[in-house]
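Input chain follows. Return structure tokens only.
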Amino acid sequence: MIRHRMLAAACAAALFVPSLAPDTAAAGAAAACESVPPFNTLVITQPLNLGELKQQILHYACSGAYDAEVANVLSEAQAYVEQRASQVTKPALVLDIDETSLSNFPWILADDFGFIDGGSCDALPKGPCGWRAWEGSARAEAIAPTLALFNAAKAKGVAVFFVSGRRDTDEHRQATIKNLTAAGYEGWAGLSLRPLNDLKPSVVPYKSGERAKIAAQGYTIIANVGDQQSDLAGGYAERAYKVPDPFYFIP
């Protein structure tokens, strides 16, 4: 595992990189970083070096580029939702949760990248069961541009539904509701979590099926927002918006 002192040495040698994030994204992933590592251009002649790839992803997140691109996608989604809302009956917006509505970057930084050391690392759950403990802590913060989209949609009379790949247990549901509420998401129309007995290799059938249920209630899903292509595949939405996620992949 790459230790914090190694990252500090690498960052000390880095050139200054200006933040690309707009003011609205100031509280995004970059806010969890202590410094910005140097950007490394990867020479792909062999399988990617995992350490170099992690450094490149960390640069992307900590420089503000990730926050800026997330904000750009969500700005486009908000403009469309606000313009389209009055043109259909029962308009709806579907949002994914993790890395779309809530940011788990502090946990990702500690567990997957191993760049946090000492007390900060000890304060975060890690290891095979770390995700469940982190989710249960309900500590994830809102992704600010998504919260702005959520509030703008509600102001236009759009019903907002969360469709998440989190597993549907009483514990997970209560933690998710607690976290969404604490992060500022209030007044949503529905929350769908993936059933425990859904063991399919992809989340596409589950997520598209939940959107089909929303449509069957007479709603027109004018926008669907997620961080994975599997959040968006399968139809039942007029437009799909994918925010970047370089941290993990869900088929």
